[in-house]
Amino acid sequence: MKLSQTLTTVATSILTLGLCGCASIVSHSTWPVTFDTNPQGAEVTISNAKGEALQRGQSPYTITLKSGRGFFVPAHYYIEAKMNGCTTVKQRVNAHFNGWYVGNLVFGSVIGLLIVDPATGAMYRMPERYTFFLDKAVSDNSERKLQIVTLDRVPQEMRSQLIAIH
Question: pTM to 2 decimals?
Answer without folding.
Answer: 0.65
